[in-house]
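Model: Ready when you are.
Researcher: Fold this.
Model:
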Amino acid sequence: MVPRDRQLTGTFGTETIRVPHARIETEAGKASEWRSKALPRYQRLTKRAEALIAAVYLAGTNTRRVRRALVGLFEGAVSKDVVSRAWRKVKIDWDAWSTRDLAADDIVRLILDGTVIRTRLDRKATNISVLAAIGVRRDGQKVLLSIRNMGGESTAAWGQFLSDLDARGPRRPECAIVDGAPGLEAALVALWGEDLPIQRCTVHKHRNLLAHAPKHLHDELTEDYRDMIYADTAAGIALRRKMFLRKWRLKCRAVADSLKETGDRLFSFTRLDPSQWKSARTTNAIERLNEEFRRRIKTQTVLPRAETVPMLLWALLASGQIQMRKVDGWETLSQPLEPMPLDLAA
């Protein structure tokens, strides 16, 4: 057995280690090469070093800047090629996740939203839309299903996003929660039909109503809106909805017209068991993900590459830095949706 010297770089710097190497003779009399499995043949970085390089790269810098940033820690041993190899391993995991089969996931609820991130595209700072889908499994656990860069939040953009998701196997959800973007709702109907229950986010709608009212009416509008949305029963919500429309038609017709335009999709959550209402009223699950992402990149005015934006969001979840808990009322997710209450459907 003849040991061979190998250099291994970690957060401790670069060390030379001796790796045993030998040739062994089989029962048939043939010689074969034997290698220790303790250190893979082409590994030059420890797993912790690879994770550190990937984290810095995902934060929005390039290979040259990663090398400069880590030169002190690694004592100058990290070349551009080493950084690129570490990054390629992350990219392989990302590509596998992005195309994985979703047929085995028992998804009962779909939460969809988009966010705008400022990044560099063709050497110019540009706003890009990142579309995301979170699924709620029947056991109540939230899972990130897909996240992609798209040109915007048009019907075509959402249609392409949903078609890719549908092609990977999840069955038609029992309901979808959206932010109110008309392109998204149109794409959902085109893919899964008019009878798909769609819930408009009540937080987004509140902001929309405030935009239709003079500032001196905001507090009163907010009080009336919350009194309606957070009523204890479907019948109570229906009654307050009628009172809201009657009052605001006289006080500020634009507010009443905006609420009426939303139709029953603002109240689809009332078809669920009341224990689920809190989690089914809003797209907060994705909003929290977006807020955490912005917190991580707030020191960077513009991300240098558009393709790393969804990868960073995925990596924060894959690494456990962001965790998603079960939805409220998950114990009743197996119950079928109730028909829309007559008072609301009227």
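Researcher: Now this one.
Model:
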Amino acid sequence: MAKVLSLRLNYKGKFLDYAKEGKEIKKSFFIGSNKFLQWQILEPSFPDKHQFIKQKGGEYVMQLLPGSKLSCEKDGKQIDNNYLKQNNLLSGNELVLKEDVKGTLTISPNWSVDFDFREPWVAVLTPEEKAIVAQYARRSRPDAVTRFNRTIIWLVFFLAIIFLLIFDLVLKPEYKVVETVEQQLNARSPVAQRVMPDITAPTSTYSESTPEQVPAEEGETSTNGPTGTPRGSSSLTSALQGFDANAVGTAPTYDIVTVAEGFVANKPGGGGSGSGPGIGGGPGIGSGAGSSYNPTDTPSFANVGAVVTNAPATQGYSQAPEGAQGVLVTGDASTLAPSGEAWGDILKQQKVAAEYERRGISTVSESSISRLDESTRTRYTSLREQIASRQSQIEQVYREMQIRQSVSFTITIYVRADGTVRESTVVPQGSYPENFVARVKEIIDGWKFNVNEEMAYQFKIRAG
């Protein structure tokens, strides 16, 4: 039977644990101070995780730790490190494990590992080991709290089962299954009923009545028509009775007030006093309008110039409206660069962009780098990293000029084969001071990258 690699861990000369090939040792075996490893070496200077055994070329190789001591023997004779090196068994910190070589690796004064190749075996426990296993293999008796909790859990479980049985057998409603569509229609018993709307022609109860002629009394202005309508009458018939087509009078005076503009004026044609017949002069509709009309009268206006030029004295509010949003502008707003428009010589920028596109150099954005082929992706990834390392220059200008808002730019650079920037398109995504935008473009135009081909790249820069 083939022999298998066997490791034995000792602490202060006492056996702790076995590790065998095919069970604990497969392609590799780790030791260290990490508590999740099978062999935990409790030494402050020991590494957290160390690959102790690994497979290399069909053989197992042990990786020695710095400061460890190796002791080997072959056929019952001690062999030193020179013998191991001459036979290509020890190279650097790697020891090739052979079936005819066994030994001990002392990791520290307290820890050591024995290694050799043995035939597979089954461990037979001694009576003392069996007694220890029998003592600690059975579970401890539960205390009163644990027993009570278990009783409650089982009680709830059985009550739930009983409730489900009662609901399924007694309380659950019966559902009638209709097998065919015809049975469903018969079960529903539809009843159709025709509804006729009540369409009744409306009738009119209007009747014409002849007004009574009442003689005019002394002191009235006009005697050619009937008197005005009595106060409080709102019917169409009463209004028609009091109308006289021959009665002419001045229109009533209106006061026009517009709150938003503060405009106040009088309607031209101010009238005299008195009351006359007709709708305009009736006491129930208007007052102060005369019954005589003079075409030579000129309109009576107040100071129209003062009215239309002077705004009313209105009081504002010191509290800002809720939900309002705006851009904080300090200084002259005319010095702000327009948002969304390229800064600088736009015609030159368009000419350079068209030239690059004509030569087949497409503009690559940050989000499209991952979709490029491997060589092109490598070049643009390097360019993106170089731009990221230079972004601090723009942030420094942002702090020096004390910009009181967050800024964002969409930038397209056209790089020559020697790495210098031939032209750049700087588009501010907001209203920023012109001198700040010009400074940003000046910095970008002065960049030089470690590239060897012409490139067109678009990216975004934010600050604040």
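Researcher: Key takeaway?
Model: The longest helix spans residues 144-171.
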